[in-house]
Specification:
The chain contains 1 helix and 11 strands, in the order ββαβββββββββ. The protein is mostly beta strands and 135 residues long. It folds into 2 domains: 2-35, no CATH class; 44-123, Archaeosine Trna-guanine Transglycosylase, Chain: A, domain 4. The strands form 4 sheets. It has a 4-stranded antiparallel sheet with strand order 3-4-7-10, with no helix packed on it. Strands 8-9-11 form a 3-stranded antiparallel sheet, with no helix packed on it. Strands 1-2 form a two-stranded antiparallel sheet. The chain is elongated and about 60 Å long.
Length: 135
């Protein structure tokens, strides 16, 4: 069986499973699924090694594991909505919140690992920054 590549002007391509001796794709897929455990998908992204927060790429339920492709893992201490930050490790009050390797705010109270990092426990560094705030 061949597929027509359309208007690209390329020669026809053999469809997977159509060459002699090929295993039927459904049977091969079923065998592969049974023999190779799939890793849990990542549900957070950590943008830099110095970050103390990860960004949820999907909603994370209470007590589920937040995990990144680079190996960060933390149990969610509360529900974390998609797009929000989760503490990867303990963050002390008045410590910087670091995302993409740069401070993006300051913790207003201690934040435990797995907690939502948002406006209820973070204040802006920009508003009270005398060094870089010229108005």
């Amino acid at each position: 069986m061949t597929r027509n590549p359309g208007r690209l002007g390329l020669p026809p391509v053999e469809a997977p499973g159509s060459w002699p001796g090929a295993a039927p794709s459904a049977r091969a897929s079923a065998t592969l699924r049974e023999s190779v455990p799939l890793p849990d998908p990542a549900n957070i992204v950590v943008l830099a090694a110095a970050d103390n927060v990860g960004i949820a790429v999907a909603d994370i339920a209470l007590e589920s594991i937040a995990r990144s492709l680079d190996g960060h893992r933390v149990a969610a201490a509360e529900a974390i909505p998609q797009g929000h930050k989760i503490a990867l490790r303990a963050i002390e009050a008045d410590a910087p919140i670091v995302r993409f390797g740069v401070p993006v705010g300051i913790a207003t109270l201690p934040i435990a690992p797995g907690r939502l990092v948002h406006i209820h426990n973070v204040r802006s560094q920009y508003i009270d920054n005398d060094e870089n705030h010229y108005e």
